Structure formats: structure tokens, C-alpha cells
Amino acid sequence: MYTESQESWPIHSMTRPQPPVVDPGPLPGLRQPPSDAIVLFDGKSLSGWRLADSTDQPAQWKVADGYMEVVAGAGNIVTARSFGDVQLHVEFMAPAPAHGEGQGRGNSGVFLMGIYEIQVLDSYQNPTYADGAAAAVYGQYPPLVNASRPPGEWQTYDIVFHRPRFDASGDVTSKARMTLLHNGVLVQDDVVLTGPTAHKQRPPYAKHADRLPLILQDHGDPVRFRNVWARELEHHP
Ligand code: MG
Prior knowledge:
The chain has about 240 residues and is mainly beta. Helix content is about 0%, strand content about 35%. It is globular and about 50 Å long. The structure holds magnesium ion.
């Protein structure tokens, strides 16, 4: 199990061990949302999403045949709704045939609170730095195993996220925690985040709101998403 001692690995180290490959088993059917889920993408409309850099603008990703697809250059998209502690289900598909390598193959990302990224990448027979593989907490924790499906197949992330808590002076009193199942396989086991995720750096926590929107990343690759839903784990007045 990974612990905070994993922080001793330099960020994006190429010598950090690669997660062992695990076949996640046969493709399951579509996981329908439970009755208390907030459906964020039902396969038909981006009405619950905005352009992240300019939230008065609509999201401009492609929507077709029950999925949405990153349009290169259209920008990250953000939910209209905000979340704190949350259970999140996301399905994604890397482009087939595979194109590019390493971080340049099927790259996107799921950003809890718009700040804490679970990497989306085509990690099927595509080595990269371990803390940047699919299902990594980007730059912090490689997945315990590589449970990736091939490009062109739908994959699932089931995430349990607990937001950080801050005191009045802005100091973190409880760090963010993440559990993740990739294609039904446990790959992040209640890891304690070092702070926001970032490229080539591990910035410290900075006080933020208790509820913030979810972001999906435009990294230039036409990654598809479908069946995105959330369950709130804390209730607010
Ligand atoms: Mg990414």
C-alpha cells in the first residue's frame, strides 16, 4: 500500500516502479446510476458543463452516440455544480488506433474540485512515468496496478474523494484523500494527497472553498467520456 512515504519519490521519476499489469476481466455492461446520483452527463447534452476558462461560455466538446469527446483546443470543461466529498463514476475511452506515446497518448484528466487530478491516459502497453499513468494521482501516486483496457474500449473510474479541510488561518487540518477503482480494480487505496496536483511540482495546499466544480481536461487528444455521475457524501445547509 502506498503511504505518504511515497512523497520521497522525485516527481515523474522514470525509475519509480511501473505498476504491474492486471487484466480487469470481461467488459461489463453499462453501470446505471443509483437513484440518489446526480447525473452530470447522460450521453445527450453538455448542459451541465461550461468552458472552464470562461464559465459564462458553453462547453464545446463533441457530443454523439451517447458520448462526449474532447475537441482539441476547445478547452477544459467544468461542471455547473460544485462538490465537496463525493463518489464519482466516470467512463472514458482512449482513441483507437492508438496515436502518440507516453503522455501523448489518450491524455485527459478528471480534476476533483478542479484541483486534484486523476490522470486519464491510454496506459495499455504504453509506459510513461509511473505517477503519470492512467489512474495515477498525477505526480503523486502511481496506481497500485495497471488495470487498463485497450484503446477503443470503455473503461471506468469509480472514485471516492474526501476534500481537504482548512482552519480559519488557511492551514490544512485534514488533507484530501482518494480511493479509486479502475475497471473495478482497486488502484488507489485511501491515499493522502500532498496538495494540488501539478506538472513537475508538488505545490502545497492553498485554502479553497468547501465545494468546487469538477473539471475534465482537454489535453489535445480526442478522449471520449460517458455515464458521468456523482453522489454527494456530505450535506450542506
Ligand atoms: Mg492529464
